[in-house]
Specification:
- The structure holds two protein chains of two kinds.
- Chain A is α/β, with parallel strands linked by helices.
- Chain A is 40% helix and 23% strand.
- Chain A has two domains: 139 residues, 3-Layer(aba) Sandwich (Rossmann fold); 89 residues, P-loop containing nucleotide triphosphate hydrolases (Rossmann fold, 3-Layer(aba) Sandwich).
- In chain A, the strands form two sheets. In chain A, strands 6-7-8-3-9-10 form a six-stranded mixed beta sheet, sandwiched between helices.
- In chain A, α4 runs parallel beside α7 and α6 packs across α7.
- Chain B has one domain.
- In chain B, a hairpin with a 2-residue loop joins β2 and β3.
- In chain B, α1 packs antiparallel against α7 and α3 packs antiparallel against α4.
- The chains are: A alpha/beta, B mainly alpha.
- Chains A and B meet through α3, α4, α5, α6 and α7 of A and α7, α8, α9 and α10 of B.
- The complex binds adenosine-5'-triphosphate and magnesium ion (MG).
- Adenosine-5'-triphosphate (ATP) binds next to β2 and α2 of chain A.
Amino acid sequence: MSASPTMNASVAKSLLSVKNVTMKFGGLVANDDISFEVAEGSIHAVIGPNGAGKTTLFNVISGFFPPTSGAVEFDSQPITGLPQHAIAQAGLVRTYQLVQLFKDLTVAENVRVGFHRVTKGGIAAALFRPGWAKAQEADLTRRTAELLNFVGLTAQAEMKAEVLPYGQQRLLEVARALAAEPKLLLLDEPAAGLNVQETDQLAATIEKLSARGVTVLLVEHDMSLVMRVARRISVIDFGRKIAEGTPAEIKTNPDVLAAYLGGTETDA
Amino acid sequence: MTSPSITSTRSLLRTLAPVAVVLTVMGIALMSSGYVVTVIGFAAIYGIFCTGLNFFMGYTGQASFGQNAFACLGGYGSAILCGGLYWDPLPAFFVSMAFSGIVAAIIGYPTLKLRGHYLAMATFALGLITYEISIEWVSLTQGYMGYSGIPPLGVGKFELVSEKHQLIALTVILLVGIWISTRLRDSRFGRALRAIAGSEPAAQALGVNVARYKLLAFVIAALYASAAGSLFAHFIGFISPEVFGGAMVVQSFTMLYLGGIGTTWGPAIGALIVSMLPEFLRGLKEMQDIAYAIILVSILIFAPRGVFALIGGWFRPKAKEGDAP
Ligand SMILES: Nc1ncnc2c1ncn2[C@@H]1O[C@H](COP(=O)(O)OP(=O)(O)OP(=O)(O)O)[C@@H](O)[C@H]1O
Ligand SMILES: [Mg+2]
């Protein structure tokens, strides 16, 4: 059977479904009836001016807080209202707009924590260290080195995370999230604070990830990055979704242009 | 990265140095008078208490001002079971520990949902409540008067009658406690705890069940505290509510921060220093308290992350800065 690429896109399984999500903070409607689907294997971007409600949407999806109304489905399972760690355990892993590293841990240890979801062992395993636990730790050492190499932080492996410059902290956060082997990776402004080379490296990393089968949902202000990596873009303004389409469609969408010209955004 | 052989020599040194310190101190104590033995025995008991507290306050980064409650449970548990009901010390020790662990789980489950100041206040209240109970429930605890006639540690007919024998037992138990702490710290479990101390949102986002791990750390701390309480009861043969009062909290915090909170050996080293220091300063008579305060403050100024972190740094090349001791 041969299907056209557009057919494929519509047939592709949806990994994440956001259904009529509304989030109110008192009188403020941060997300207003937002719906969209993220296809499995896609790189999907959410863009919008400052304060549009993008981070709030990520917080709802990842279970940081439940929505006021609406529902989220991940991998065909309803996840609305589940605790965040349970959603993460299911394979939906996020990073934060403001870097959240384990500052007292080394760069390598930060990544090792990332493997929590895909490893096992509690107090007894820690105490008695059976063969499988030792093998697991050895395996983690190897995979940690691989991931650090992947994001270019090998030389910093034994440094404390807090001494890294900001750009490298962001890369570390991405590496740590990757350690969790997410099915869906949510990145909230991963390029903020990165220089041109680092942004380039990040774009390459996201593309490599996608090639490995990780679905990526991305909030980002850096339009060149978005236009380079995203297959599909949803645009949010004042809490509402005002447009969705391919990068080419979004670039020429009059509503989007109006939102960006009228909004507080200056660098787009 | 440093070559494996250098790294392993250093890590061996790092492991052996504190063992040597502890064993030397205990060795000196064994050759000294009864009074020194008592002081060092207290230090070992506090070392056990602080090593446990370190799971919750150090590794996991939470605040508890009420861990004395579980020392109180352990102390009175052993006192009542052995002194009143003539149990053997060992089963009494473990039954008290299990009881403390269960109480910690029941109290921790709702309490640990609180954060920061609220958690601190809730745990502080816990310490006050056990203190009040130990005073008021006279038929069980003998109230203010205290509970006496607690037998020394021992197994069956074999009693550790002399204080020096007891000190050896305390040292062994302390070393086992630190060994457990070291093993747990460098594991998936320990990393989850330390992740919580670093950033709860990030830990959650990586699938760490933060509430569960906090509770486990709290229960572990309670088990150590209970053990310390039981050992105190056997070592001195007498306990009263004051023994497990608020002063214990202040004392243990000093030890924890001085020795190095979040490190493996820091709590025990801190307990040794804080317990022995007043004895060294005794000759200074009325200047003693001032000298004590000056020394504590200067240690905290020159080793803000604790004595153990400072010493740990000597055995480590600069590049490995982040490697936790
Ligand atoms: N926890 C909260 N409590 C109250 N108001 C909030 C909360 N989180 C976000 N808001 C408000 O919701 C609105 C949307 O914020 P949000 O952080 O989602 O925007 P954003 O699109 O991520 O912006 P930026 O591009 O600046 O990161 C803002 O007006 C913000 O002040
Ligand atoms: Mg945001």
